[in-house]
Amino acid sequence: MVTGRELWVILLQVGLTPLFMLFVFDTILGGQGIVGSGFAELFLPGVVALAALTTGLQSVALPLVKEFGFTMEIEDRLLAPLPTGLVAVGKLIVATVRGLLAAVLVYPLGALIVGSAPWRPAGLPMVLLVALLGAWVGAAIGMSLATSLPVQRINVAFSVILTPIIWTGCIHYPWPRLSSMPWYQAATALNPMTYVSEGVRGALLPGVPHLPGWVCLAVLTTVAAVLTWVSVRCFIRRAVQ
């Protein structure tokens, strides 16, 4: 119900960064011939991945900063007849739903901007699964940051964390094509966003070089499990304090 009431907020949250990036790189740079005409097809799957992970991150991190702030609104949530760890899991689930919704919304919006979009019905289950895992990973990252760092350092932490996540996440390019820069290819392999982008891109554009789908699912599942444990532990420790 809350997500439905805040749908316009989600649209703004989804649209600003990913869609402006798509507009600049495809419509402006593509119209001037600076980038190739097929760049949008490579970029749009990355935009879907970006929307899923970053929306999941912001949907849990920003509210938690407020709830653990001066007013301590989190105490009302902790009064629920649930173990404290399940309160944290509930917040991860809500943020994941918002991230998945963001991925679903940004695809047609991006298609309107560029005028076309890769479409492969057989790959849709893979797209949804990868976006779901990506949103969960983003939510777990956001909870870990919001519950382990001092409130006054959250803004700096977001800049430090989000910038490399976005620009080393293979949003703009397929991972195999970085083979000429092995050091950068290795750096992108450490970023969970890479596996979200490659999973979505491979499902929609199987003819483009990409990481195998099973690799993306295996890495994202492992990262999601580890970050879930870390984020819930951080939430419990902060709540007890």
TrEMBL record:
Q: Where is the ABC transmembrane type-2 domain?
A: 9-238
Q: Which GO terms describe its cellular component?
A: ATP-binding cassette (ABC) transporter complex
Gene Ontology annotations of biological process type: response to antibiotic
Transmembrane stretches, start-end: 7-30, 42-65, 86-110, 122-142, 154-175, 211-236
Question: Where, subcellularly, is it found?
Answer: Cell membrane; Membrane
Q: Which InterPro entries match?
A: ABC-2_transport_permease, ABC2_TM, ABC2_TM_bact-type, ABC_2_transport
Its domain of life?
Bacteria
MF-aspect GO terms? ABC-type transporter activity
Among its keywords, does the record have Cell membrane?
yes
How this chain sits in the membrane, per its record, is:
Multi-pass membrane protein
* UniProt main location, coarse: membrane
Q: Matching PROSITE patterns, A to Z? A: ABC_TM2
Keywords, alphabetical:
Antibiotic resistance, Cell membrane, Membrane, Transmembrane, Transmembrane helix, Transport
Pfam families reported for this sequence:
ABC2_membrane (PF01061)
**Family indicated by similarity:** Belongs to the ABC-2 integral membrane protein family.
Q: Can you say what this protein is called? A: Transport permease protein
